[in-house]
Design goal:
- It contains 2 helices and 18 strands.
- Helix content is 3%, strand content 39%.
- The protein is globular, with a radius of gyration of 20 Å.
- The strands form 3 sheets. Strands 10, 11, 12, 13, 14, 15, 16, 17 and 18 form a 9-stranded antiparallel sheet that branches. The chain has a 7-stranded antiparallel sheet with strand order 1-2-3-4-5-6-7, with no helix packed on it.
- The protein has 2 domains: 109 residues, no CATH class; 144 residues, Distorted Sandwich (Glucose Permease (Domain IIA)), CATH 2.70.70.
- The protein is mostly beta strands.
- The protein binds zinc ion (ZN).
- Zinc ion binds next to loops.
Length: 285
């Protein structure tokens, strides 16, 4: 395809990878962006592409699908989250700078890759009733009606990327949203509530479990650099209050600070560690 090229970033200087990152490899992708007709508008489902080592597309090295995820033929995956976007060509989909939020099975890469996606494709391919239908359980009505604050300062709703159904560590579903931001960016309570638990865990690192005012739901904030000064269990907190700071504690890649944010419906017992996960993307957007 004549569109294949190395991207010229002069129109999008913000997409340059940070100086402390190194190039691990280049791959070329050929495929489509899948959209689904909701009855009122086109909703983005995900990409579906074959990755190849060379521009001729003959030596395939893996696949690219929703997440966004890049999977090598040997099974290793990189899952990214959007950091910046730029649209140098109005007729094409945006170019993205992504940070890796998970690099399972890529032990040979010693640091997560900051990737610039360069889909020099024509306008997105719209398909009715795509082959990969997304089953999205609707959020409970009472949550959908609440006016949540985005839990990371400076992040806009349209920057959020759904990653609830991504696989992390093999078969385990992610059941959360990852929001990338520079280390020490303030993390805010999404609404009023109570600090149910401050917890250090191997995977989540420094975490906060917040109950909502009705004590039906729990909000979970993980990979924090630190808590807000003086925060303690039992504290009543207000919507928008700074409760911590973005970091990489737990199993977050050390050069991809992000907030891992989850929501779950508590059981009748109201245990801070137990409940049914709800996709935060649906209630924050
Ligand atoms: Zn996460």
């Amino acid at each position: 395809m004549e569109q294949r090229r190395i991207a010229d970033l002069s129109a999008c200087p913000d997409l340059k990878a940070p100086a402390n990152t190194k190039l691990a490899f280049h791959v070329y992708a050929q495929g489509v962006q899948i959209y689904r007709w909701t009855g009122a508008s086109w909703s983005f489902v995900g990409p579906s592409a074959v990755l190849s080592a060379d521009a001729d597309g003959k030596s395939t090295v893996g696949t690219h699908y929703a997440g966004p995820t890049w999977e090598s033929n040997s099974g290793g995956t990189v899952v990214g989250a959007v950091q910046k976007r730029c649209t140098p060509d109005a007729g094409s989909i945006p170019w993205l700078l992504l940070g890796a939020v998970s690099t399972d099975g890529l032990a040979d890469i010693d640091s997560p890759v900051i990737q610039t996606q360069k889909p020099a494709s024509p306008a997105p391919v719209a398909t009715t009733g795509s082959s990969t239908p997304v089953v999205k359980p609707a959020p409970p009505d009472d949550l959908a009606r609440r006016d949540f604050v985005i839990p990371v300062e400076g992040v806009k709703r349209e920057q959020l990327v759904r990653s609830f159904e991504d696989r992390r560590s093999g078969t385990r579903a992610h059941e959360a949203i990852d929001i990338l931001a520079p280390r020490n960016t303030p993390v805010k309570a999404v609404e009023d509530g109570t600090v149910a638990r401050l917890f250090e865990s191997k995977a989540g690192g420094t975490t906060i479990y917040q109950f909502d005012p009705t004590e039906q739901y729990c909000y979970y904030y993980a990979h924090l650099e630190r808590y807000a000064f003086g925060l303690k269990e039992g504290d009543k907190i207000r919507k928008g209050q700074v409760i911590g700071f973005v970091g990489t504690s737990g199993n977050a890649p050390k050069n991809t600070p992000h907030l891992h944010f989850a929501v779950f419906k508590l059981t009748a017992a109201k245990h801070w560690w137990e409940g049914t996960p709800i996709d935060p993307y649906d209630i924050l957007r």
